[in-house]
């Protein structure tokens, strides 16, 4: 562990202590995990404590752990993962918080801490269905207004539920059930025993 990352870990333990459910260093990156109840307070402290000094949030995304580790995952399903940057201290941090309820995942919004989290949280809401409590404009950002479901969830069908197309008779865009037939995408060399082998005759 580099001296800089060791210092960061010490500062995190000093200022956040029992609010950390996990602190890990892997591949030269520090990751902390916090409970949903402590998330907003921790994120505020990460910004406002000079010894931590994370002035910027560079990314926030949703994660669905439903089939993580080939289905061996046994914890909560949805998490929000943030990447923070301290320019003053020249270090980075990853923060993970799990939503308590898998049926209606929700965590606090950090738009009051970093305004730039706005579109990141909207994207995680749109694609994963994670609600960010306190976000003042939480609506879809990438999918269509009438879209049903959250397409990055592991149980969302690859072909989707509906498709849209322009109907020249009605002179407008319409929605209809998906017309794409599921097909086998296994490469020929895997599904045909004789492919690539010696030929006889």
How would you describe this protein?
The protein has 201 residues and is α/β, with parallel strands linked by helices. The protein has a single domain (3-150), classed as 2-Layer Sandwich (Beta Polymerase, domain 2), CATH 3.30.460. 22% of the residues lie in helices and 28% in strands. The protein has helices at residues 3-16, 39-48, 68-71, 117-128, 188-191, and strands at 20-26, 29-34, 56-64, 78-86, 91-98, 106-108, 131-133, 162-167, 172-177. β1 and β2 form a beta hairpin. The longest helix has 14 residues, at 3-16. The chain is globular.
Quick gist of this model?
By secondary structure, this protein is α/β, with parallel strands linked by helices. Helix content is 22%, strand content 28%. It has one domain (3-150): 2-Layer Sandwich (Beta Polymerase, domain 2).
Low-pLDDT parts are: none
CATH architecture designation:
2-Layer Sandwich
What's the pLDDT, averaged over the residues? 90
- Fraction in helix: 10-25%
Strand order of the largest sheet: 1-2-5-4-3
H and E order: HEEHEHEEEHEEEH
Give the helices and strands, then pairings.
Elements: H1 3-16, E1 20-26, E2 29-34, H2 39-48, E3 56-64, H3 68-71, E4 78-86, E5 91-98, E6 106-108, H4 117-128, E7 131-133, E8 162-167, E9 172-177, H5 188-191
Parallel strand pairs: 2-5, 6-7
Antiparallel strand pairs: 1-2, 3-4, 4-5, 8-9
Features of the shown structure:
single chain; 201 residues; alpha/beta; Beta Polymerase, domain 2; five-stranded mixed sheet; 5 helices; 28% strand; globular
């Amino acid at each position: 562990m580099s001296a800089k990352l060791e210092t960061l870990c010490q500062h995190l333990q000093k200022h956040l202590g029992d609010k950390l459910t996990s602190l890990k260093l892997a591949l030269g990156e520090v990751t902390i995990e916090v409970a949903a109840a402590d998330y907003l307070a921790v994120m505020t402290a990460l910004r406002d404590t000079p010894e931590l000094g994370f002035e910027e949030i560079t990314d926030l995304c949703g994660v669905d752990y439903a089939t993580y580790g080939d289905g061996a995952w046994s914890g909560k399903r949805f998490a929000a993962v943030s990447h923070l940057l301290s320019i003053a201290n020249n270090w980075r941090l990853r923060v993970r918080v799990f939503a308590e309820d898998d049926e209606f995942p929700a965590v606090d919004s950090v738009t009051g801490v970093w305004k730039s989290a706005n579109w990141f949280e909207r994207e995680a809401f749109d694609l994963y269905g994670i609600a960010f409590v306190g976000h003042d404009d939480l609506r879809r950002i990438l999918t269509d207004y009438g879209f049903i479901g959250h397409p990055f969830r592991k149980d969302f069908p690859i072909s989707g539920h509906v498709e849209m197309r322009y109907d020249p008779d009605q002179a407008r865009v319409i929605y209809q059930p998906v017309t794409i037939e599921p097909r086998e995408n296994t490469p020929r060399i895997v599904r045909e025993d004789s492919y690539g082998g010696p030929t006889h005759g």
